[in-house]
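Escalated from tier 1: pyridoxal-5'-phosphate holo job.
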Amino acid sequence: MTAITSNLQAVNHAIAQAACMAHRCKESIKLLAVSKGFSAVAVCEAYQAGQRDFGESYVQEALDKIELLRDLPIQWHFIGPVQSNKTRGIATHFAWVHSIDRLKIAERLSAQRPARLPPLNVCIQVNVSGEASKSGVAPSGLLELAKAVASLPQLKLRGLMAIPAPAEGLEAQRVPFAKMRELMHQINMQGLALDTLSMGMSHDFSAAILEGATIVRVGTAIFGERNYGGNQ
Ligand SMILES: *Cc1c(COP(=O)(O)O)cnc(C)c1O
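Tier 2 regenerated the structure:
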């Protein structure tokens, strides 16, 4: 068995354990394998081990892999910062974008989403820890942005995404994830129907699952250490 295969098994096992602790079924949590910094061969290996959803943060790197692996039925998720001059490649080649934090970007993605494809699934990234350096909309601006994004024709607003400040220990890690759960609840009380909380990475996905994560984005624990990137 390759390292990637056994790592995937271990991560899936840990997801199942956290799901049990949360009294949830493991099928309610999707594992997104974050393959940024790793080759198409590594992605293919994870695919052979049963993984179907992959996350990328850099447009050109992602498009190269997507082209190489075009015959595999992979769902590609864009999880990095979206620059407005890169929206067309994203709108054309991805099934999901997790990192919407401005209306202008959402409008471009909607306008550029090819009509032959289903609407692009999107999440709004929330700066849940209030860090000045982090991308994401502040919680105070979230509802207004969510309503505007939800009205765009070629997008389907699915939920919220966050990258909280790193914390040690399950209880401390749960705090920002609980806040995300509450934010989604508040938005749904206003008449929207979000079903996705994209939160939890290699070091904190168990805490995220305890607070309702439906997509966990895991890179290092599957593919190993990267020599660049992460956390942006
Ligand atoms: C890189 C990245 C991840 C994966 O992080 P790991 O710590 O390697 O699991 C998850 N989400 C986003 C947005 C990332 O950029």
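The longest helix spans residues 170-189.
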